[in-house]
Amino acid sequence: MLVIFLIIFLMTVVGNSLIILAVRINCKLQTPMYFFLSNLSVLEMCYTSITIPNIVFSLARGTNVISFNGCIIQVYLFTLCATTECILLACMACDRYVAICRPLHYTVIINRVVCLCLAALAWLSGILNATINTVVTAGLWFCGANSIERLYCEVQPLIRLSCSDTHINYILVTLSGAVFGATCLIFILTSYVFILVTIFKIPSRSSRKKTFSTCASHITVVVLYFGALIFMYLLPNNGSSEKKTSSQKIDSIISMIYAIMIPMLNPIIYSFRNQQIIGALKNTILLFQKKGFD
Q1: Is 52 exposed, middle or buried, given 0-12, 13-18 or 19+ CB atoms closer than 10 A?
Q2: Which residues form the G-protein coupled receptors family 1 profile domain (predicted)?
């Protein structure tokens, strides 16, 4: 298991780093879509750095114990990343909507300033949401069991362990999910309804296919990420103790998918059948090989 997690960590860091470098040094990729993709790649590396090093260290020691302060830091960083990713995916949907539905106004609407503002909004929203939820969670009193059924610390499992009144915590978690999760998902779905309507109006079949292909990678990531979140947070955990145990195990598996597997898969998804990215990645690798020989 230790080797597997190390491989996943290396693949995630290398894959996302190559995406960032390719976008950075290739003039053809200096567009809003790839700007947001670079932000997403940075975020995916943060996700992996929060979870996998601690998992690897725990496996090496033969114990999965983490200090309370370490757990709270994980909660903060993980909440920050989850919030930011929801908004970034919504920004990417907005970019695709303008590019396909209002192509003549694209450079005016999605300009450099707008891109920077949207990226700043995503990261600052993540910081704000993480700070509020983490401060309130850190103030809880824990007097009973101190074990969570996940590979890392997150807000909801900690709330379930607390002996304090968690009414305010659940309100904050619900508001957070509604504002940053449900709202972003509704925005993305609405954008793609208009995008699909516009694509179906294109007379040429080859043009429809080419236009839709620019959205395929983003749609795949949205389905994987929000699908995992919905499955995890809408999964009922009431009933018998056996059902609760089974639910917790499934919850742990799904949380590992969206926190560890998706960050590793994102570079592959965005590179698959994207000739611009593939070409840029090849040029980036050749450039480093040339520098190495020099």
Answers
A1: buried
A2: 15-270
Q: Which helix (H) or strand (E) is 265 found in, with range?
A: helix 262-271
CATH number at residue 107: 1.20.1070.10
pLDDT (tens digit per residue) in 136-163: 998 888 876 677 766 678 888 888 888 8
Asked if 59 contacts 285 with a C-beta cutoff of 8 angstroms, the reply is no
Q: Please state whether 204 falls in left (phi above 0), alpha (psi between -120 and 50) or beta.
A: beta
The pTM (predicted TM-score) of the whole model is: 0.88
| Residue/partner pairs of 213-220 with CB below 8 Å, 24 or more apart | 213/273, 214/33, 214/96, 214/99, 214/100, 215/96, 215/100, 216/273, 217/269, 217/270, 217/272, 217/274, 218/89, 218/92, 218/93, 218/96, 219/192, 220/269
Given a cut of 60, whether residue 194 has pLDDT beyond it is yes
Phi and psi at residue 239, in whole multiples of 5°?
Answer: 115, -155
How many distinct structural domains can be found in the chain? 1
Angle, helices 241-256 vs 205-233, to 10°: value is: 140
Question: Shortest CA distance to 260 belongs to which of 17, 84, 47, 60?
Answer: 47
Asked whether 140 and 169 are in contact (CB, 8 A), the reply is yes
> Range of 232's domain?
2-293
CB-CB contact of 153 with 72 (8 Å)? yes
Read off the pLDDT of residues 21-40 as tens digits, 9 standing for 90 and up. 888 888 878 889 999 999 99
CA of residue 105 relative to chain centroid, distance? 29
Say if CB 100 and CB 198 are below 8 A apart.
yes
